[in-house]
Design goal:
By secondary structure, the chain is mainly beta. The chain is built from four helices and 61 strands. It has a seven-stranded antiparallel β-sheet, with no helix packed on it. The protein has a five-stranded antiparallel β-sheet with strand order 7-6-5-4-11, with no helix packed on it. Strands 57, 58, 59, 60 and 61 form a five-stranded antiparallel β-sheet that branches.
């Protein structure tokens, strides 16, 4: 991405890596991305459903600024913002319903430290990574990339007057491909399919269902004919790799023993006994076998006619690389160049079933493909992992896990549609607009004979309406409309390993390794894969030269050798600190560190506004001066640090001269059929006239639930169970709620 012609307020500086270029954003004179570059980017992004925004940044503390903004007039089609005042990352976009939407992710990027940020969107699925760690994964309303011409792209601000980013940015990329975060973090898992991939799978499944429907009558007739064969003796057979096997017949397939049982192939991995080899031989794999066999050692001398003769080796080929790049191998006489392709030499054919050859520094080895596990210790033979049977899948409500070679699929149950990679919900033609009702008619769910329940407002976060005003929530959510996230960490649902800490996220959680630990690459759900970091071996300690670093579980100690009088000093950022010394970090004046017996401990500075020595940079709330004031958007009103106001249905706040705005949160409108947003206001209100309504709820057919749990329609009357003299009726109150009217022996009670 290139800047425009004007560079005022933007300076080239050293980047995150040595000798890499970055741009320092200061002041308020910036420039949008060049028109020709912007048009190329927009052409790639236009009408796409899968893209990723990548950026490496170092943002000043308390700064709230826009990283990337793609907007036309007042419509923000895609904007990524980081708020240092509210410790939040915001994704602004325009939905397919042509509404403006903001998705907020609580996280602090504005800490004056380098971070790698990735926001990946796949249809209605968004994943946020920070420093190659997956922080959030959500289902959102589908963004619209129907971007008009003359759309502008800004870097480091929203427009010429708002959203100024302060700090350093580099490697800003807009990647239009699945799992674009892989280009920023190559070590992340790239085997999981994206939401866009699943949409294609759903289409294929629908086509298969159509084929299945056309063949159902043929199967029915075949079953009728099969019934006539019940009196006959029929031997079931099995088919595998094009071969036909009889019942109870056994055979060997690669490194598995297979048999035919009741028409089904059953295979088990061959168990190899340890070979008992004589002294003049050693166990080794022989091509075409699964177990090691005793083989004579390979020697360069042999006996022939009772005499010792030397075998003359062929001359070594001439190497084309410098001598410093020559490598000596243990299994051959000739040297090779560094980076030699051993797999081409013939090792690759030994990687037989679901295995592939991998080049190493001084040779090669076999490695199982993703979704397979080794059947023998050299990984030459690998078998499929059944994620469905072993519970290693992520399929959730209303889906069925189907194992595939090397992976799995989450298939929606009949009558359900996909909402994300692993979840499905009921098909609702009314809310999706896929109906043929007249524009002056109201869409109902059902055909008048078979009807489906309608809830008071839509069930949120993928919830399903199962009874009138009753939502069944997906795992991780609760509430009347599934609007509340369950904090699995505080509610006691999760027990992480002692080396990990539970971190709650919307709809889910994860066990994150504690300080002093890191994941060993297995990424177990409960944190069992967290292992101790050896700070001593990796030189990530602060022990001074007169002490010895001693690794302990989750940390380290600086121990004094026996007989020595140690100072207890510390090494921090290649600087010597005395025991008991207190100092302020060079790159963060708001953090205070101290050295205590060789260990360095740091914390944020405590603000005391009554003190005359308070650092106003770290404590802007203590600054009453003009430098901390903010101008209103109309440039006619001045606000002090900490003041808040509402502008264009956004809540804004002034903090140390910086303005930060975020969408207003409106209270839910309950028990209301028709809503309208009055002119000059931001939140919807209940109204009675449907012609003036902005939105019409789908719960037109209101119901009551009686004392036995049965659903009753409006106006319905019934006799209370086991009481012949009590009449109940479902009636509407003036405010839209419902009540029972009981008539007991001529008296009416409410």
């Amino acid at each position: 991405m290139k800047l425009g012609e004007s560079y005022a307020g933007v300076f080239q500086v050293q980047g995150f890596h040595n000798e890499s270029r970055a741009f320092l954003f200061q002041g308020k004179t910036r420039k949008l991305v060049k028109e020709d570059v912007a048009e190329v980017m927009l052409q790639k992004l236009r009408d796409k459903t899968e893209f990723t925004v990548l950026v490496t940044l170092k943002q000043e503390r308390l700064n709230s600024g826009v990283l990337l903004s793609i907007h036309y007039a007042e419509h923000r089609y895609l904007e990524l913002e980081s708020s240092g005042q509210r410790n939040e990352i915001r994704l602004h976009y325009r939905t397919r319903g042509q509404r403006q939407h903001t998705e907020g992710f609580p996280y602090s990027l504005a800490d004056d430290r380098w971070h790698k940020l990735s926001v990946a969107v796949s249809v209605s699925h968004v994943v946020l990574h920070v420093d190659c760690n997956r922080i959030y994964e959500r289902v959102i309303e589908n963004p619209s990339m129907d971007i008009p011409s003359d759309t502008t792209i800004w870097l480091g601000q929203r427009n010429q007057a708002h959203g100024y980013f302060k700090g350093i940015m580099q490697d800003v990329q807009l990647v239009v491909m699945p799992q674009g975060y892989i280009s920023q973090c190559p070590d992340l898992n790239r085997t999981c399919p994206t939401c866009n991939d699943f949409h294609g799978l759903v289409q294929k499944i629908m086509e298969l269902q159509d084929v299945l429907a056309k063949t159902s009558s043929k199967l029915s007739r075949a079953e009728e004919k099969m019934q006539g064969l019940d009196g006959c003796y029929c031997e079931r057979s099995c088919s595998m790799n094009g071969e036909l096997y009889r019942e109870d017949e056994g055979w060997t397939d690669g490194c598995r023993n297979c048999s035919c049982y009741n028409g089904t192939v059953q295979c088990e991995t061959i168990l190899c006994p340890p070979p008992q080899c004589p002294p003049d031989s050693a166990p080794a794999y022989v091509p075409g076998t699964c177990c090691k066999e005793c083989q004579p050692p390979v020697v360069s001398w042999f006996l022939q006619e009772h005499s010792m003769q030397r075998v003359e080796n062929a001359p070594c080929p001439e190497l084309t690389c410098p001598e410093s790049e020559h490598i000596t191998l243990t299994d051959r006489c000739c040297k090779v160049c560094r980076g030699h392709h051993f797999c081409v030499e013939g090792h690759s054919p030994s990687c037989v079933e679901n295995s592939e050859c991998v080049n190493l520094e001084a040779g090669s080895c076999c490695s199982c493909k993703d979704g397979y596990r080794a059947l023998r210790d050299d990984s030459a033979y690998c078998g499929d992992i059944d994620e469905c049977a072993e519970g290693k899948h992520y399929c959730r409500e209303n889906t069925m896990c189907v194992n595939t070679p090397g992976s799995f699929m989450c298939i929606c149950h009949t009558g359900y549609i996909r909402i994300d990679d692993y979840s499905c919900t009921e098909r609702d033609e009314c809310t999706t607009g896929l109906h043929s009702c007249d524009e002056n008619a109201i869409c109902y769910v059902g055909n008048g004979t078979v009807c489906r329940a309608l809830c008071d407002g839509l069930c949120q976060n993928g919830g399903s309406c199962v009874n009138p005003d009753t939502c069944i929530c997906q795992q991780g959510f609760t509430g009347k409309r599934c609007e509340t996230d369950i904090d699995e960490c505080t509610d006691g649902f999760v027990e992480c390993d002692s080396r990990a800490i539970c971190v709650n996220l919307p709809g889910w959680y994860h066990c994150e390794c504690r300080d002093g630990y890191h994941d060993n690459g297995m990424f177990s759900a409960n944190g069992e894969s967290c292992e101790d970091i050896d700070e001593c071996a990796t030189e990530r300690h602060s022990c001074a030269n007169d002490t010895v670093c001693f690794n302990v579980d989750g940390g380290y100690d600086c121990r004094c050798p026996h007989g020595k009088n140690c100072t207890g000093d510390c090494n921090h950022d290649n600087k010597h600190k005395h025991n008991g010394q207190i100092w302020v970090l060079d790159n963060d004046r708001c953090s205070v560190c101290s050295c205590q017996s060789g260990l360095v401990m740091c914390r944020r500075m405590v603000c005391d506004c009554e003190s005359t020595t308070a650092d106003l940079f770290c404590c802007p709330e203590c600054n009453p001066g003009l430098s901390s004031q903010c101008l209103h958007q109309n440039r006619l009103i001045t606000y002090s640090s900490g003041d808040t106001w509402v502008e264009n249905c956004q809540q804004c706040q002034c903090m140390s001269g910086e303005v930060d705005c975020w969408p207003m949160s409106c209270p839910p409108v309950v028990d209301c059929e028709f809503t309208q947003v009055p002119e000059g206001q931001c939140c919807p209100r209940c109204i009675t006239d449907p012609c003036q309504a902005d939105t019409v709820r789908n719960d037109i057919t209101k119901t009551c639930v009686d004392e036995n749990g049965l659903t009753r329609f409006s106006g319905a009357a019934w006799t209370k169970h086991r009481t012949e003299c009590t009449l109940c009726q479902c009636k509407v109150r003036q405010r839209g709620s419902w009540e029972y009217t009981h008539t007991d022996s001529g008296r009416q009670t409410h």
